[in-house]
Structure formats: C-alpha cells, structure tokens
Design goal:
CATH superfamily of the largest domain: NAD(P)-binding Rossmann-like Domain
Radius of gyration: 19 Å
Number of helices: 12
CATH architecture of the largest domain: 3-Layer(aba) Sandwich
Number of strands: 7
CATH class of the largest domain: Alpha Beta
Strand content: 5-15%
Distance between the termini: 26 Å
Strand order of the largest sheet: 3-4-5-6-7
Number of domains: 2
C-alpha cells in the first residue's frame, strides 16, 4: 500500500482483514506510524462496537508492517495499490517505480478518484497490468470499489481487480477510464449544486443535507460528504471535470474556492460546512 494517509491506511486495513500480509509505505516513519495508529484505532472501535472480533483485529494487526522503503515493500507484492495525492506526475513516478520493483505477475492499481488511469499507466513498464481501484472513505465501512479499465488494461487484470475487491469485502463495479469515472462524476455534480444552493441562501446546510437523506434515502447529505472527502479534493476533481467534460456543469462555485483558500477543508481541518471535533 503506497501512501498511509486517509485512503491508504483504510485500504491497508481491509487488505489485512482479508487475510493478506500487508506493507504500508510512506515517505517518513512518522507518516507510517500515524497510518498504523489510525488502523489500530479503527479496529479497537470495531471491537468495542461488536463489529469486529478481538482475535480478528489482533490477527489483522499482526499482518501489517510499516515501511519507508518502496522498492523493498514492493519486491514480493502480488497487489500494489497507490493512494498518493491527486497529482498526475507524482502518480506516474510512483508507477514507474512499482513497475520496476514489483514481480512481473503483480496487479498494479491506483486509487485515483478522477485522474486518467491510462495517463498514470504511461509511467509504468507494464501498463497492461495497471487499473483503477477506487475505494471510498471511510474504506473500512463503505462497500463500493470502482474498478477502472484503461485502454491498455487487459481483461485478466480487470478480473483480478474485481476478485481482489470482493476478497476485501467490497462490491466492485467496472467502469471505463472516462473523466470522473461513475462515482466522482455523479458525486461532484450533486455536491457542487448543493454548494451553489448554500451560496444562494436556498436553505441551511443541515436542511439541504436532510433533503437528500430523508427525501432520497441517501446515507449522508452532499455537504457533509464534501466535508468528509475534503473540500480541496472536491475542488481538484471539479476543476479536472470542468476541463475535460464541461466548463459550465462542473465550474466550481466561488464559495468552494474561498473555503479552500481559507483552509476550511472539512473534517481533516476541523471546519468545513460543519464544525468537526477530534
């Protein structure tokens, strides 16, 4: 697992819970330790709430190890998943290293929520083994995994990614490598319209979210979900979709830009459309 942040530690957790020996990589020991600590906290809460058995939690933790050596962690991997920040050139560099370090049979997956998987795969010596495996936050709770097929991705790679997602307890869907895939395109469209409604004073944050949770049976409203995903992440995806699909439909609202400039990024900073406590 490349990247121990919000998504990376969650993917590493479900991989270990699936019974796989799992290496969690990041640039510094502090980042790795922080990711492993969040996994321990998640599992402890799961045990306390009766969602996870204590022996299963202990076994999962025993399968996890941290690493700051990417090549060493990748050397014996059957599956490598990347969850670094949404920067195309950064991801291409990561896949160049993974392609050179992982065994020839290894499945290579990116957790990108919107960047073109085919462009990411161009940095890899074996692009046919690269696909998207887009998980959702919090990974240990949400059941969806979006498997993204690039033009160079082989059928066997897609089949292995689908099987891996199911082994991790996820329900996979398979989508073409189109801008925003299925989930980000739909989710961002709804989130941007909700933010425009806040700008226009249509209703309060809480009431806009209640319209979707109570009226359409969504488990979470679009504004609260934007806080959970991160306003900076939502802005980056919207800008990408505006460039690639439609500059009108996906034009980021001025309110979203202003909140990101002010550092109100949602749950991770404690303040977004809602106030979050640790």
């Amino acid at each position: 697992m490349v990247g121990a942040g919000t998504m990376g530690h969650g993917i590493a957790q479900v991989a270990a819970m699936a019974g796989w020996e799992t290496a969690l990589y990041d640039l510094t020991p502090d980042l790795v330790d922080r990711g492993l600590g969040r996994i321990r906290t998640n599992l402890q809460r799961g045990v306390e709430r009766g969602k996870v058995g204590a022996p299963a939690a202990e076994a999962a933790l025993a399968r996890l190890r941290g690493s700051t050596d990417l090549e060493g962690a990748a050397a014996g991997a059957d599956l490598a998943v990347e969850a670094v920040p949404e920067d195309l050139e950064l991801k291409r560099r990561v896949f160049a290293r993974l392609g050179a370090s992982c065994p020839a049979h290894a499945l290579l997956a990116t957790n990108t929520s919107s960047l073109p998987v085919g462009r990411i795969a161009e940095g890899c010596p074996r692009p046919e083994r690269v696909c998207g495996m887009h998980f959702f936050n919090p990974v240990h709770i949400l059941p969806l995994c979006e498997v993204v097929r690039a033009s160079t991705t082989t059928d066997s790679t897609v089949e292995r990614a689908v099987a891996a997602a199911r082994a991790m307890g996820k329900t996979p869907i398979v989508v073409r490598d189109a801008p925003g895939f299925a989930s980000s395109r739909l989710g961002v469209a709804l989130g941007l319209e909700a933010i425009r409604m806040v700008e226009e004073g249509v209703a309060s944050n809480e009431d806009i979210d209640s319209a979707m949770t109570l009226g359409y049976n969504h488990p979470m409203g679009p504004l609260r979900l934007t806080d959970l995903v991160g306003l900076d992440v939502r802005l980056a995806i919207a800008e990408h979709l505006a460039r690639e699909l439609d500059p009108v439909r996906f034009q980021p609202p001025a309110l979203l830009r202003r909140m990101v400039e002010e550092g109100r990024l949602g749950k991770k900073t404690g303040q977004g459309f809602y106030r979050w406590e640790e």
